[in-house]
Amino acid sequence: MATHYLSGARPEYLTAGRACRLPGGTALTASGATAARLEAEGATPRPAPGDGQTIERGPAGWVALDLPPEELADVRAEALDRVQGQAETLRARVASPGDGQAMSYLSKATHAAEVIAGTRTASGLLEPLVGVEVDPATGQPCATLTEVAAVIVAAQAQWEALEGQIDAARRAGRIAILAATDAAAVQAAEAAIAWPDIPALPG
Length: 203
Known about the structure:
- By secondary structure, this protein is an alpha+beta fold.
- Helix content is 46%, strand content 13%.
- The radius of gyration is 20 Å and the shape is globular.
């Protein structure tokens, strides 16, 4: 469960102890993403709910909502599970799932950006990909560290753009479902979610 919200971070809803990227581009490893560090960067901790309330993720921060009657709560919970599942299905078309894989992506993206900027001349993460990573523009294996870095930087930018679309649809759907006052409205809110068309990507 997310513990903090920080606008512009990736992801914006953060979990202490999980790798993330700060708004300025700094990547935090799982050990570095402590609650104290996140709050020092301006992240808002998840507040405690009031009586008869639940705290949910809103479009731009935490939102306190009144708890619904039990039957409606069950319908909502099932719809929210489906929404989350669809978001993960779309994400899996773009990037391999798993905390370890996420840390690998973040670390490689950081090294690649540094190579492109000229502040890194060697990388134990990227050098093994020379001759392995394929440039999608040419279909040929990357022959240099710089070529590998360029492919990874482009892939990271593409991922961030697609993730933004996925998360925007997911969050809009959640807000609409949580605001629904009966089962029919929940179903209508779920059906109205405008999921992006995400093609499966290699890598």
